[in-house]
Structures are given as structure tokens and as C-alpha cells.
Amino acid sequence: MEPTLSLAERIGLIEDERAVIRLQTAYGYYVDKAQWDEAADLFAADATLEIAGRGLYRGQDRIRSYLKCLPSLLEGTVFNHMQLQPLITLEGDHAWGRWRAIMEVAIRGKVDLVGEATYENRYVRDGGVWKIARLHCFVTYYADWQAGLSGGGVPMGTELPEFPPDAPQTVAYGSFPSVFVPPYHYANPVTGQTWVP
Q1: Is there a domain that residue 172 lies in?
Q2: The CATH number of the domain where 49 resides is what?
Q3: Residue 117 class from Cβ within 10 Å (0-12 exposed, 13-18 middle, 19+ buried)?
Q4: What is the CA angle 159-113-166, rounded to 5?
Q5: Burial 98-109, CB ≥16 within 10 A → b, else e
Q6: Could you tell me which residues come within 8 angstroms of residue 127 by beta carbon, excluding any fewer than 6 positions away?
Q7: How many Cβ atoms are within 10 Å of 22's Cβ, its own excluded?
Q8: Domain-located, residue 72
């Protein structure tokens, strides 16, 4: 039987959950507008970042440099990352979160993509402030708007030759048309069973 929490403890958990949601949502808005410094500021000093098959970047400075390799927001570009379905798990000064991102990427006359990614992230309270400790973005599909999903997927990103990662990607997987279920950080809330692929 779990111990009963006081009202103050329950309010504290709600406030922590809201702070983590606000943190991740801010990340999405900064990415939308290619505000790479603002996005990098959300990470802990020893954080890691892993997006698609581009490998793992370690430390806030490396994450900032990686983000600055991504395209700028110029006339004729759209980078939307709508982050939905947050599932937050709190444990003291650490938290885990699973999100779904619906992505729209367009560069006029060149690129016209829609995609989905599942985030499995870890957060840490550092000096009383929640920060991203690990951002792991599993791209499940990218598709050309004109061809649609039935036209097949567009390959997900690979390592950037101009800025190699600190380590290879930690989970080998493929995006659509391959089938991949990103690992869950939590057990089933009803059965308590952990899903194993």
C-alpha cells in the first residue's frame, strides 16, 4: 500500500509535472522558429540529445552546436513540431516524459514533408529548475505531402558529415515503412506489466 501524500506534497507533484510540460513545450516552440540558443538553454550541462539516426550528442555546448547546424527560419520555410500526449513520471528531482510530435517541414520549391516522432525524455531538477537531461526523438515516419503515406516514407535523418556525433545512435531502428515501437519508460498503469518488444 502506497503512503498517503499530504496536500502540499500533492500540489508539489502537480507543479513539477506542469513545469516539465512547460519545459518540453517551450522546446517545441523554439525549434519551430529555429531559435537554437533558446532551445539549447533548456538542457542540463551534461545532457544528451539524440534525434533520428543522427547519433548522440553529449553536453549542452555540443547540443547547442548541433542545433546550429540545422536550417535557419527564412522566407519560404516552415518547421512545425506540435508536441502532444504528454505522459510524465516523477521521481524526486528526476522525471521522465513520453510525447508525440507531429511535424511539418517545408522549404518552398524543395521540401514538403509531414512526419511523426515519439520522444522518450528524461528531466532533472537542477538548482530548483527543471531542465532536459536526455532528449531522445524517435522518428517513426516522414512522408512527402504530395505522395502521402501510401507513397512510402522518406528516409529519416542520418549523421551530419559536417558535425559528427559523440557516439552512434543508442537504439538501432528504421522509420516507416519499417515498423518500430519506441520503448516505454513506464509500466502499464493498470497491469503493472512492462512492455518488451
Answers
A1: no
A2: 3.10.450.50
A3: buried
A4: 15
A5: bbbbebebbeee
A6: none
A7: 11
A8: yes
Give the global pTM.
0.93
Q: Which residues of 32-71 are buried (b: 16+ CB within 10 A; e: fewer)?
A: bebebeebbebbbeebbbbbbbbbbbebbebbbebbeeee
Q: How does pLDDT run across 92-125, given as a tens digit for each residue?
A: 999 999 999 999 999 999 989 999 999 999 999 9
Three-state secondary-structure class, residue 117: strand
Provide the grid cell at 177.
515503412
Strands 129-144 and 111-126: antiparallel
Residue whose cell numbers read 502521402:
148
Nearest to 43 by CA among 55, 19, 60, 61: 60
Number of domains in the chain: 1
Closest alpha carbon to 68 in 39, 42, 28: 39
Any domain includes 158? no
What are the grid coordinates assigned to 42, written together?
533548456
pLDDT band for position 2 (cuts 50, 70, 90): low
**Residue listed under C-alpha cell 502499464:** 188
Q: How far apart are CA 130 and CA 124, in angstroms?
A: 6
**Residue 178, CA distances (Å) to 28, 158, 183 in order:** 26, 16, 16
Containing structural domain, residue 37: 7-151
